[in-house]
Amino acid sequence: MTTSGEDVVGRIGGEIDRRGLKRTELYKIVPSGTLSNWKTKGQEPSAYTLLKVADFLDVSVDFILTGKNPSGLPQDEQDLLDVYRLLDRRDRDELRAIAGLKLDSAKRGDTLSNTANA
Questions:
Q1: Which 8-state DSSP code applies to residue 12?
Q2: 3-class DSSP assignment, residue 22
Q3: Nearest to 104 by CA among 114, 92, 116, 94
Q4: SS3 sequence, 48-113?
Q5: For residue 116, pLDDT beyond 60
Q6: Is CATH 1.10.1740 the right assignment for the domain spanning 5-66?
Q7: CA 114 to CA 60: how far, in whole Å?
Q8: Which of 41, 59, 43 is nearest to 51 (CA)?
Q9: Are 101 and 41 in contact (CB under 8 A)?
Q10: Of 12, 6, 82, nearest in space to 54 by CA
């Protein structure tokens, strides 16, 4: 599997947007020109720089390079799992029940519940 600089920069930008962070904070770690060189000139980031960016974004270096966490899950799924693990048993049971209702609704093709939150 080959990861391009464009992929790496895209994942970094996507995480910044998803988390509501400011790019100016990232530029304190990695100048915008360096990101541009990764993206357009094929310049490879150092392991140290990737680690600093991963720490800033609170993701793994694996995620930045591959789009997957060490668990093999995409970041949004890992985030859900992390939240689930923070819940007590009663809240976990409630969350599973809600997920079950949503799944049943989706299987029936009930688009009303899907569009109400859009």
A1: H
A2: coil
A3: 114
A4: HHHHHHHHHHCCCHHHHHHCCCCCCCCHHHHHHHHHHHHCCHHHHHHHHHHHHHHHHHHHHCCCHH
A5: no
A6: no
A7: 31
A8: 59
A9: no
A10: 12
| Of 43, 66, 63, the residue nearest 53 (C-alpha) | 63
CA distance 106 to 118: 15
pLDDT in tens, 37-56: 999 998 889 999 999 999 99
Q: Which amino acid is at 47?
A: A
Q: Which of 45, 44, 55, 71 is nearest to 15 (CA)?
A: 55
Band of residue 118 on the pLDDT scale cut at 50, 70, 90: very low
Residues in contact with 47: Cβ distance below 8 Å, sequence separation at least 6, in sequence order: 61
Do residues 5 and 53 lie in contact, with contact meaning Cβ atoms separated by under 8 Å? no
